[in-house]
Specification:
The chain has 381 residues and is an alpha/beta fold. The protein contains 14 helices and twelve strands. The strands form two sheets. Strands 2-1-3-4-5-6 form a six-stranded parallel β-sheet. Helix 11 links the parallel strand 11 and strand 12. Helix 7 packs across helix 12. It is globular.
Length: 381
């Protein structure tokens, strides 16, 4: 984008800074390198060059990397754990009365000024609704952060209606605005050639996602074992980064014939896995959006996902919905996916591709431009 975008939607030589200040608090990127990190990177890459400011905790616009980032992340969390939501030693900034702070994660409102003119991006409210999936300190910190947000009443943006509904049940609607801007497909993932994953032969089910308790790979593994799919010549491939819960997942996987844990795989191999699997399986206990399901949909791969979850929303309801705590039901859905005719597979594939193809970065960024343009006008929202 070459032109500077004034937040009122006007073209102006001074860009965003010419009518006030838009400051991105991207402290998230110091600590979190999951999908939320890539969303933050794309947002700041779009708006910082046209006049928005950016800060990384107390480092200003300096983005730490490598060992420095890890040290800073530890210091940042020590400060949050110690000072929490106290008013002392808040991070200073030059945001004026008409300016907007955009927090790319709710946690970081704790160490900053927060006004009802600001905006908070919320991926999910998991630490409040699914406390058993997080450590006690994380839950306590997010409770304080959300309480501060509730008191002040800024604008809040969600990545799915599922997360927005959970938030509104907890905190009501007394905010400057509540708006959903769905996430988008990483189209670059599908650019380039595909490379066969080593050691993967014949038909197989696929799960992509961090090895975490909340992703519920344990239930999916039990479903695969209980369904007797290995005896039918069907394998099961799981890939993703290691997270909390990996040890339990790996231990169970080691006892189930036909299962292959691959960890992180290059994009070329991931393209091949999406393109050759029989179905995508992710009966997650908690998702803010569900990017892997959308990626599977883009490749025409049937998602088997948790009923009524953000995963269902991400793929426009074109999926097989299962109860995540019922391995027998998951196994039944896996068996049904295998038994589909070629015509059924082709029809579902077309619907999935159409849904996923509409989830573009262009649409996502345009919705953010429109939101920031409206938010910059007093009384507009």
């Amino acid at each position: 984008m070459n032109e500077r975008i004034d937040p009122r939607g006007l073209r102006a030589p001074g860009g965003l800074a010419s009518v006030g200040t838009l400051l991105f608090d991207n402290s998230l990127s110091i600590l979190n390198r999951t999908g939320a990190y890539h969303i933050a990177k794309d947002l700041t890459r779009e708006f910082v060059p046209v006049g928005a400011g950016i800060r990384y905790w107390r480092l200003g616009s300096f983005a730490p990397e490598g060992l420095v980032r890890k040290i800073v992340a530890r210091l940042m969390m020590l400060e949050i754990n110690w000072l929490r939501d106290r008013e002392m030693f808040l991070i200073r900034d030059k945001v004026g009365e008409r300016g907007i702070r955009l927090f790319l994660d709710p946690l970081y409102v704790l160490r900053s000024r927060l006004t009802d003119n600001d905006i908070v991006l919320c991926h999910d409210v998991g630490p409040l609704t699914h406390g058993d999936l997080y450590d006690e300190r994380t839950c306590a910190n997010y409770r304080l952060a959300y309480e501060k947000i509730r008191r002040v009443g800024p604008g809040v943006v969600f990545v799915s209606n599922f997360s927005a509904n959970d938030f509104e049940i907890l905190f009501g609607s007394g905010f400057r605005f509540l708006k959903t801007i769905p996430l988008y497909l990483r189209a670059e993932l599908f650019d380039g050639p595909a490379e066969a994953a080593p050691g993967v032969d014949g038909p197989f089910f696929l799960t992509v996602g961090a090895f975490e308790t909340r992703k519920n790979q344990v239930a999916a593994l039990k479903a695969y074992r209980g369904g007797g799919f290995h005896g039918q010549g069907v394998g099961y491939v799981l890939c993703g980064s290691r997270g909390d819960g990996y040890a339990e997942i790996a231990e169970l996987a080691g006892t189930v014939p036909g299962v292959r844990l691959m960890g992180y795989v290059p994009d070329a191999q991931l393209r091949w896995l999406y393109g050759n699997a029989e179905a995508f399986v992710l009966p997650s206990l908690l998702e803010g959006f569900g990017m892997p399901a959308l990626e599977a949909a883009y490749m025409g791969l049937l998602p088997i996902v948790s009923a009524g979850s953000a995963l269902v929303e991400a793929v426009g309801g074109v999926c097989s919905q299962v109860q995540p705590d019922n391995p027998a039901a998951i196994a039944q859905a896996m068996g049904t996916a295998l038994s589909r005719s070629a015509a059924e597979k082709a029809q579902t594939s077309r619907l999935l591709r159409d849904t996923a193809s509409a989830a573009t970065k262009v649409r996502f960024l345009q919705q953010w431009r429109e939101l920031l343009a409206a938010a910059a006008i007093p009384g507009k929202m």
